[in-house]
């Protein structure tokens, strides 16, 4: 069954059964998308995110987006994280987040500050495109100043090339 | 009169910077030292610095001749005779047996003596002789100085001798600034330090629980501009290093405030700001606080500005061509021109005093090394560091040497290297991570 159809079907079922949790419509269990368009759209299911979901919702609990070397493109596997956080911003207009861009150790500190910011902006742009408001998002860059891993290999570097989503108001 | 920065917190003695230059063959190999002779030192001029005689008073803790000896070796221009080979100890010209030093193939010999000048002051006298011509080249009595200032006196002597022989002003009596990170994770403390050019006498200028970056000396050596993350975002501060007073000079709440660089006359600060959306180079007039945008790019990262010595041109890093490369632009704004064409990417320039030598970080694959491009040699490039994660080149004010940051294991260390790349030496910090070196200007006597 086509994934888009499946989501629509689940959403329909939810509408008809009011007790159905919005979690049922979350796309986290979906296989890797063939067509990204469905994944970049925020869920428009009946359920709205509410206070507390940041701790309990499996998608919202994911707060890190990883990048390829010297790249700022959001990879397909992170589109769903972006989508659910965008929906959260939309559902809770008083919520605020800080996006912290980070890089691996290669290259100079000030250039990496710029690269980290560019990654933060890429996530910010994706969030606003998916329904979040720019006024809810603050982008900062740590460059390569805050690595989570300090070894000199690709495995480690890939963990450091990231944007962390930090909620400053839920 | 020399004014060491005693007002600054001398209580940070836990930061032990050991930076002692000797040849590997020398008998007195001390704790942490490493000198790395990369090759080609045969071209260096042989010179002997005879231990200075004590004529009255008590032996001071500073070995003046040793400080001079180490300055010379670090420069790459000189090869100072190791102590074990110094078989005679003349303290004045009339005592020198030139045949001995000719046999040891020495071109120059330095002799000297320390005299008790009363009130705890020491007067240092020295002479520089040409061994082959048996001719006195320099003979000087230094101003009496307190015992604690003898390292400064020794560096001034090294500068005078260096200039007499090479014709280039010495830069040993200068200071360096750098950042240390001590501790792990949330318990890391970042410090901005200032030390002598050989790493001795480190003094903390600023401390923060958040990252500090990009220290830049004002041309008069009185202030340091730097980036601090203490408020969450990157902001630029200017701090007076003797009084400790500090000004916040760039703090746009949106985006990066980074990469400060003083104009040669000290009236302006070139900075990289991204409040408009992407990083661009701006010039901040320190008196009027007016910002003038210099680069007009709307997509790329434009950062790490450095001024040409005449203040007319700003060099900077930009990835407008896809990967970071070095560009130049008129300091008043205008069209930017790319100047780096060798290597996959180039970043973070330091410009020599005559504007001809431009040092940068060149990245090829996963290897980042310090490269020097010589504008007077048609842009020819030579490497002065081995990589793989070298960065932050900073020329001495006479451009004969550079400092840069390297990574060893998981910790940062600083190296000094001669501009020809032939002599490299590591500055060892006993604890933590050292990075972001900046070589200060000439000091005023």
Q: Can you give keywords for this protein?
A:
heterodimer; A: 170 residues; alpha+beta; 4-stranded mixed beta sheet; 4 strands; 15% strand; disordered N terminus; B: 445 residues; mainly beta; Rossmann fold; Neuraminidase; 2 domains; 7-stranded mixed beta sheet; 33 strands
How do the strands and helices of this protein lay out in sequence?
The complex is a heterodimer of chains A (170) and B (445).
Chain A: H1 3-16, H2 37-40, H3 53-56, E1 64-66, H4 79-91, E2 96-102, H5 109-129, E3 137-143, H6 154-160, E4 162-169
Parallel strand pairs in A: 2-3
Antiparallel strand pairs in A: 1-4, 2-4
Chain B: E1 17-18, E2 34-37, E3 45-49, E4 53-55, H1 64-75, E5 78-80, H2 98-103, E6 108-118, E7 121-130, E8 135-141, E9 145-146, H3 150-166, E10 175-182, E11 189-196, E12 203-208, E13 212-217, E14 223-228, E15 235-240, E16 246-250, E17 257-262, E18 268-273, E19 280-285, E20 291-293, E21 302-307, E22 313-318, E23 325-330, E24 337-338, E25 345-351, E26 357-364, E27 367-374, E28 380-383, E29 391-395, E30 401-408, E31 411-418, E32 423-429, E33 433-439
Helix pairs in contact in B: 1-3
């Amino acid at each position: 069954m086509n994934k888009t159809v499946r989501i629509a079907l689940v959403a329909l079922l939810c509408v008809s059964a009011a007790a159905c949790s919005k979690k049922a419509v979350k796309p986290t269990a979906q296989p890797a998308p063939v067509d990204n368009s469905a994944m970049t759209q925020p869920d428009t299911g009946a359920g709205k995110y509410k206070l507390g979901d940041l701790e309990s919702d499996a998608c919202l609990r994911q707060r890190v987006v990883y990048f390829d070397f010297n790249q700022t493109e959001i990879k397909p596997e992170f589109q769903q994280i972006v989508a659910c956080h965008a929906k959260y911003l939309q559902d809770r207009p008083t919520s605020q987040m800080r996006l912290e861009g980070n890089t691996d150790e290669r290259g100079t500190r000030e250039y990496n500050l710029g690269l980290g910011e560019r990654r933060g902006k890429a996530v910010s742009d994706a969030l606003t495109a998916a329904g979040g408001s720019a006024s809810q998002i603050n982008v900062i860059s740590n460059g390569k100043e805050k690595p989570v891993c300090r070894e000199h290999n690709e495995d480690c570097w890939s963990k450091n090339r990231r944007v962390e989503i930090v909620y400053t108001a839920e | 009169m020399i004014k060491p920065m005693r007002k600054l917190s001398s209580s940070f003695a836990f930061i032990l910077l050991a930076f002692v230059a000797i040849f590997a063959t020398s008998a007195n190999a001390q704790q942490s030292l490493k000198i790395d002779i990369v090759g080609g030192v045969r071209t260096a001029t042989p010179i002997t610095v005879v231990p200075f005689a004590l004529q009255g008073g008590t032996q001071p803790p500073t070995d003046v001749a040793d400080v001079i000896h180490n300055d010379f070796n670090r420069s790459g221009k000189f090869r100072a005779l190791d102590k074990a080979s110094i078989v005679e100890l003349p303290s004045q010209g009339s005592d020198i047996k030139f045949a001995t030093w000719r046999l040891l193939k020495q071109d120059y010999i330095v002799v000297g003596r320390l005299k008790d000048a009363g009130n705890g002051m020491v007067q240092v006298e020295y002479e520089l002789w040409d061994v082959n011509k048996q001719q006195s080249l320099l003979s000087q009595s230094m101003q009496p100085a307190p015992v604690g200032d003898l390292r400064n006196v020794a560096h001034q002597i090294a500068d005078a001798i260096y200039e007499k022989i090479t014709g280039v002003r010495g830069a040993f009596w200068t200071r360096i600034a750098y950042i240390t990170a001590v501790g792990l994770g949330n318990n890391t403390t970042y410090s901005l330090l200032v030390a002598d050019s050989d790493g001795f006498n480190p003094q903390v200028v600023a401390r923060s629980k958040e990252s500090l970056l990009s220290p830049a000396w004002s041309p008069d050596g009185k202030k340091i501009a730097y980036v601090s993350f203490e408020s969450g975002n990157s902001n630029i501060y200017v701090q007076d290093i003797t009084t400790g007073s500090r000004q916040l000079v760039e703090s746009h709440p949106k985006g990066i405030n980074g990469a400060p660089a003083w104009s040669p006359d000290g009236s302006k600060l070139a900075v990289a700001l991204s409040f408009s959306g992407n990083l661009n180079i701006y010039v901040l007039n320190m008196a009027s606080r007016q910002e003038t945008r210099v680069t007009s790019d709307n997509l790329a990262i434009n950062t790490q500005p450095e001024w040409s010595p005449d203040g007319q041109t700003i060099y900077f890093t930009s990835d407008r061509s896809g990967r970071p490369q070095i560009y130049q632009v008129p300091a008043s704004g205008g069209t930017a021109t790319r100047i780096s064409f060798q290597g996959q990417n180039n970043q973070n320039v330091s410009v020599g005093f005559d504007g001809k030598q431009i040092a940068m970080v060149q990245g090829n694959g996963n290897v980042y090394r310090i490269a020097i491009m010589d504008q007077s040699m048609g842009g020819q490039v030579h490497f002065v560091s081995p990589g793989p994660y070298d960065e932050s080149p900073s020329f001495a004010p006479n451009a004969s040497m550079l400092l840069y940051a390297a990574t060893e294991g998981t910790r940062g260390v600083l190296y000094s290297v001669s501009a020809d790349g032939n002599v490299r030496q590591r500055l060892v910090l006993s604890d933590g991570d050292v990075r972001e070196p900046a070589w200060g200007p000439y000091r005023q006597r």
